[in-house]
Amino acid sequence: MKNLRHIRAFFLFAVLAVLACSPAFGAEPSLEQFESLTIGGVRVLLLSAEEFDGDATIFGVMRVGHGHQREGEAHCAYLAEQLIFKNPVVGRCSLDTWVSGHGAANRSNSLWSSTISWTANDYTQFTVIVPGRSLPGAIRHLFNALFPAEIKQETFDKLTNLDLKVRLQVMAADEARSVENAFLDHFYQGTPFLKRVLEVSANDVTSDTVLAFMQREYALSRLTLVIAGDFEKEAAWAALNDAVSNRPQGPGPSYPTVDFSGIPSTAKAECELVDGPRFVLGIGLAAVPKEEQSLFLLSLQFLYSRLVNGLPGGWRVLKTEQNLDVSNHSQLLYIAYEVEPTLLEEGTDKLAAQLLAAAKKETAALAAAGPTSAEIELYEAALHEMEAADFGLNSYSIAFKRGVQELPGQAELPFSKEELPAALQKLVQGLAEDLVYTVLIVEPPAPKSKIKPAVLALTAAGLGIAAAAVVLVLTRRKGRQAA
User: Fold this and answer.
1) Is 99 helix (H, G, I), strand (E, B) or coil?
2) Residues in CB range of 184: below 8 A, 6 or more apart
3) Share above pLDDT 70 across residues of the chain, in percent, rounded to a whole number
4) How many CB atoms lie within 10 A of CB 185?
5) Which of 18, 202, 360, 406 is least surrounded by CB atoms within 10 angstroms?
């Protein structure tokens, strides 16, 4: 099977998401042992156990992402995510600096004090790993960082010049990421998820704009904290109660919705980095019922496998940063291709139509017969690999497995492996008519004329004068002949 390694990795991603949403996933201490409580609007899940050997991890989800940005707020969600760790909110000490000053609690598990984060369409995810004895201080610093009174201008300038600007330059210079961004701009046009990251300069973002974004969107009622580790629970609860005081509870989670009905089946875009046409296929659904989200995610994995291997010769799959874009309501699969030069003789429009037809054919086949035995075997192999994997008993792995359940767009898979094929087939049958298909043809810009505009203008003016002179001469000749 072609591209087997790539498909296997893709299935592992899906299986991890599904397993992480299953209560049975995880070593002891189990995920069911988390205590759940709401403090000042914050949903807190807490698990303290000596087996974590001195480690503690905070897995946080703030239900605010790119989709909450308004006009003129490009890059604000990403910069807010970074400022959680970089902005010195207590004296001159940022959360990053504070955390790095607390050494690893359990070096045998290679768990160094660290921070990790990610911004999606409708949430920001972040992780803080510290020794258990430092957890109360980490909680207080985290809340100060999430709800800052100001953003230090020096820090902001460094972040935009040394991080955001470089990040945008790297994205703009990378063919795969430029093609991917062009497709996402195409697919999300007219929706809150449209980012246009390469169209807004880092210099156009101000600290006041980012601060206003954080103060408007970040709220206690949109925050979930999953805390696992070896720590004193009483001290953690006390720190949490202290941290939420005098903080904005704000409105509850508000998930942006999208409408894909106006997306054209084919469209074109230009990219200076490509040396020939690239074709990006997208298959999306604007509203997936929560109880069906994990099953629909798996159906996209099977479609991905078929669309990577089922195309005729001459097509090649291109690497992209990711192939899935998932939010609380919508899910999107996209795959980028290039074709051999000989196929281009058919024309890009015809090739795009072939790609659309192939995608619809595979979806219809999945709805008609469900996944094949070979596909189920591949899924089960990935399932067994993840179940057998030794993640080690550490606070991060347990907090992550439980925390993923709190992310928008995730849901427990309520089927056994035996029930899965029929359940998936039924789901695809029910949703097939609502799926949106589109292909973006990304091409190099048309060659520009080597004659400068000023030269063209002078040439046109010269031709106009010459034409007028010819008319004048002919008019005089006619006048003489008449005389």
Assistant:
1) helix
2) 193, 195, 325, 334
3) 82
4) 18
5) 360
CA atoms within 13 A on the CB side of 160: 18
pTM to 2 decimals? 0.85
322-368 residue pLDDT tens? 899 999 999 999 999 999 999 999 999 999 999 999 999 999 999 99
Burial class (CB in 10 A: 0-12, 13-18, 19+), 432: middle
Alpha helices for 290-438 (secondary structure H):
293-309, 348-369, 373-388, 395-403, 420-431
Residue 17 has pLDDT above 70, yes or no: no
Residue closest to 136 by CA, chosen among 224, 201, 260, 227: 227
Task: Write down the pLDDT at residue 18.
Answer: 53
Report the candidate in 213, 184, 251 with the shortest Cα–Cα distance to residue 70. 213
Q: What is the DSSP string of 186-222?
A: HHTTTSTT---TTTS-GGG--HHHHHHHHHHH--GGG
Inter-axis angle of helices 373-388 and 420-431, nearest 10: 120
Distance of CA 125 to the CA centre of its chain: 11
- State both tokens at 384: 């067994």
CB 138 within 8 A of CB 96: no
Task: Give me 429's structure tokens.
Answer: 């049958």
pLDDT digits (tens, 9 = 90+) for 138-194: 999 999 999 999 999 999 999 999 999 999 999 999 999 999 999 999 999 999 999
